[in-house]
Amino acid sequence: MTNPPTSLFSMIPTVLVLLLALGFTYEADARTGRHARRASLAGPTSTTNVEDSLLSRSLHRSPDRRATSGWEYVGCVTDGGSRALTDYSGTDSSNTPDNCIATCASKGFIYAGVEYGNQCYCGNTLSNGQGVTAKESDCSSACTGNKSVKCGGAYRLSLYRKSDALTMSPMGCYADGGTRLMTGASTSSGSLSLFSCATFCSQKGFSYFGAEAGYQCFCSASAPPSAKQIADSSCGTQCASGDGTICGGNYALSVYSISGSSSSAPSSTSSSASATKSTSTSTSKSSSASSTTASPSSTPTAIGCFSDSSSNRLLTGPSRNDDSNTNARCSAWCASQGYDLSGTEYAKQCFCGSTYSTSRAIADSSCSYDCSGSSSDTCGGYNAISLYCSKPVSSSPTTSCNAACTSQVGVASVPSSGRKNLWAHHMVGNTYSYTAATWSDDISQAAAAGFDGFALNHGSSDWQFDRMADAYNVASAQGSFKLFLSIDVTAIGCTQTSDAQRFASIVLRYANSSAQATYNSKVLVSTFAGDACTFGQGSAQAGWTYLRQLIKAGGKDIYLIPAIFVDPSRFSSMTWFDGLLNWDSAWPTGSSGGQPLTTASDTTWMNALGTRSYMPSISPLFFTYYGPNSYNKDWIYRSDDWLLARRFEQLIAMRTQIDMAEMVTWNDYGESHYVGPIRADQPNSQGWVNGYPHTAWLPLINFYAQAFRTGSYPSISSDSMWLWSRPHPKAANPTAPTLSRPNYWDTTEDNLYAIVLLSSAATVTINSGANTGTWNLQAGVNKLSLASAPGAIGGKIVRSGKQVKSLDSTGQFTYTNTPQDYS
């Protein structure tokens, strides 16, 4: 483990801005982290997908290809093992185009396809690269319900479509930029298709749309100027839906004109769904708001957008269709049925339930349909449900549901179970120049931020023991701040008997200090790694047993809670520890980390540990940029989705199951997750640390720390705002990069994030460059996001027509599309 950096700065006393030194960002669906697939095509494809080009010409009809009134025959198109129409399929001994169309129409789909005589398929878009025009003679199988009519063939669909469905006419590839070419509505999605973009823009009343970078959708009332048209080869990025079609390129728009009705065409993408839609306006290309604020009992609390399907319902209680559906109306009906959870879907559907699965959370942008009862409210989407809870808790500064909802991220119910401890991981290896005064400043700032103490991560250098002695002396004089050792066995060694003797002497050196942290009346000790430590005894079990004996011989016993990196299935056979620190639980990690952080890892570890202690970790971010000639660590973990607040809310919800948690870290500069001040001793991380202070996190940490430690949120007596952003896009091409793009860059997003604590209702505006979003928000904790754009970032809080807080990063921070490096 090396030492990482990060930075924050305070612009005005109670409005703070956090600027993360993560060299780039990447846009993806916020809730699911489903990042846009950016695979470029080598060149124009020679095949034609019906949605791309058939829609731009007249749809032909054939005498033996009859269609139900309101539907028309598209043609014979390709299909395969990965189907063209994926939303519904069935076989029917009475299959005909009319019967299949009736089935698809009843389910709300705009495409119907018959195949191989007895098969019927439905959908709203053509997927998997299928739907390419084929010879009519390929569709020659007689329908099982009428031998005189043809029903496709072997991997060939006789395809039909609603007559009033959208028609898209391609106009070419157009140059875009920081000043957007298409300035109407906009959205982004990790499942964007041309058709879903067309549907979104049509529903918003626009006649033109453009798809960009695979996952972005822009609308316009007028055609773009011809002077902006560029070579088609500039638009070579596949649509995020994976259907094989092209959705623009890097600042390049695939532009289409649209005609027809979208009334029956469910869209899988759109702008964010949230409880604040009715009171928010936005001029950004994409924005979302998540609010956990206290509200009147008639207003349900938004939990988020979740996947749903007819075969696997998220909410399994009563349901109904309602032509006057709104989220409040649905919530009230569910409450009358005895259910606190409600969900709206597909504009007019209302579902009720008592429990739900947090693992099915998806992007807010997937819940985008206007409610059937109010165009200013959002009621789910296609196979996407907007989830709400009906019971706010007025005594908390954030809205909470009852017990059925308390496990959900973002719901700030505070289970009561005594006081908890919050530690901060402190890298002693970054303290070479520390004096007692430096330690005093660190301890004072950490205590003010709600930390109970430091876990002192150290190696084998003699000077580090001198620094720890200073830390213990200062903490003892301070009185209440505690310390414990986190021995980095990757640096100190643990294979020889002499290592055990040294380890024991280190523990005993500080064990009698009044600043020593204890648990269950034992000296609290942690490690970084340790499952391979044998201390010369032949096995880890024997080695740690031997070490404990040495420490007991010195008159002390330890409570050992190391951070090890093994499969939890092995825990039951490893009896040498008293509990474990789950170091990697703080972030969605690796290539599979493209989704918001969940508590799945926590649950797995707690189940595997049984009655032994579990200590989760918490962190604001992770970015490291070392080359092979150094630490050879070059990656980023997804740090979006209001990660710090999200993780705190998770830990608060599980506080009955844990007694302590650890912040990773106070001063690990090399991995960028520091929350303390930037000091002089850095592990060659200045390139992505200097100029990026992170101490502005500390007041927000204190807010959540009080809830975690005491079981009660503090009151919000004044307004505060935190903004944080990466300095450039994830897919940026630096002018002088030190290394290639860090690993896992494509799991992140290009967003500006905000958390706003309001003492009373107010209007809040945030901006990233020219992108601006405005929300009318209630008192409490509010979470906002906005797509990043070149320029400064800023925000303001307005109440009763008067601006009460504002910030502007001009001269201090600028988001740019052309950075010098990824750092």
Automatic annotation (TrEMBL):
The superkingdom of the source organism is Eukaryota
Keyword field: Hydrolase, Repeat, Signal
Which stretches make up the WSC domain?
Answer: 70-163, 167-259, 299-391
Ranges of compositional bias, category Low complexity: 263-302
Q: Where does the signal peptide begin and end?
A: 1-30
Mind listing the GO molecular function terms for this protein?
glucan endo-1,3-alpha-glucosidase activity
**Residue segments, region Disordered:** 36-61, 263-310
Q: Looking at the keywords, is Repeat present?
A: yes
Q: Does the keyword Hydrolase apply?
A: yes
InterPro entries in UniProt = Glyco_hydro_71 (IPR005197), Sialate-O-sulfotransferase (IPR051589), WSC_carb-bd (IPR002889)
Q: Which Pfam families match?
A: Glyco_hydro_71, WSC
Give the matching PANTHER family.
WSCD FAMILY MEMBER CG9164 (PTHR45964:SF5)
Can you say what this protein is called?
Glycosyl hydrolase family 71-domain-containing protein
